[in-house]
Protein 1
Amino acid sequence: MDGNTWLWLVIAAVVVVLVVLLVMTLMRKRRRQQEERRVEADRLRESATQGEGYVQQKEAAAREAREQAYAKRAEAEALEKRARDATEEARGHRDHVTDEYLEAEDIDPDGDGGRRR
């Protein structure tokens, strides 16, 4: 083998070593990034686990508020019905009382209604 061949062999060997080193470096970097992602994912899971109790408490409070609102709405509707019924009954009685006043006025000889006859 002549000197040129040896030179090309050395260059090829150096290139192979450089490629192997580059591949190893990239693999280490990838493993390090994956480990960092695992650590971050674990941290996020831990944070989510700690927040779960708070979320459950707020959900329970929301359910309770919703149930109270439903009960109050039903109570308010019942009170509105009572008020409408009482108003209607009062109007009926008012009409009856007014009719009695008018009748008394009509039959009273000393009242205005009696003089009109």
Note: Residues 3-107 form the longest helix (105 residues).
Protein 2
Amino acid sequence: MRTLYFVSALAGAIDVVLKYHYAKTLTPHVRVFDTYPFDLTLHFNEGIAFNIPVPLLLTVLASVAIVILILPSLTKPGASAYTFTALVGILGNAFDRAWDGAVTDYLLFFTGSVFNISDILILLGIIGILMYAEYVKD
């Protein structure tokens, strides 16, 4: 599990660097390699998942609620690394949104879904927490 803590923290740090770098060097909505199904492009997500427009206050309140819901799993040895992974992703996107009012996305999957490493960390962390909860339940 220590490896997961390290990899999550490293991935979060890399994401912050890439967001800054790509925001300064890429042109929004222009594909870098023009390859399928993966490419690089710059997108500023001012909404929540899938660019759904939501007022900033509601986004902040929802983020705080999610953090409060997953924090108890930090005390569970089997789930704490997954919780840490999700929190690294949440903080990475929260920092980005606080810094410039939008989350910087740059990984283009297929033809329209643009993500960043923080999004992947959140997804993996939540999947880990749910798998742990299912394992403990049995």
Note: DSSP finds four helices and three strands in the chain.
Protein 3
Amino acid sequence: MRRSRARCGQRFPSGCLSTTIGYGTAIIIDWMIDLPSELEKQFTEQLSQYEEEKQMPYVTSVERLAREQGREQGLLEGIEAVLRTRFGTRAELILAEVRKLSNAEILRQVLHAAQTVERPEDLAMLWSGTGEGENGARA
């Protein structure tokens, strides 16, 4: 839903977050209204300031999921870089298996082990028997 700049400016006057509309309403508004970029920046700054003052950061389930996926992606990229640097094309077979993993703790272990393992195939010991990466699907 798109609102005009003037109307959004009326709904989000400077400092209104902590005094007028309240935190819960602000979260709902943030979720429902597509603000112009300048007002979105101002709103985000006010929301962050409010969260700091009240020591109550709000993280949606979507944000938590996105963070976890970002961590997994970063770990996968690190593993790929280490294995390709150390083993070149020999790493490709194990990388196909590594890409099926989704458990961040196992991915961290793989990243650390990738730096010292003698053969890329030896990494499979870290997830074999855990159910991770089986059947070609990521959890």
Note: Helices lie at 5-11, 16-21, 23-32, 37-54, 61-87, 92-98, 104-114.
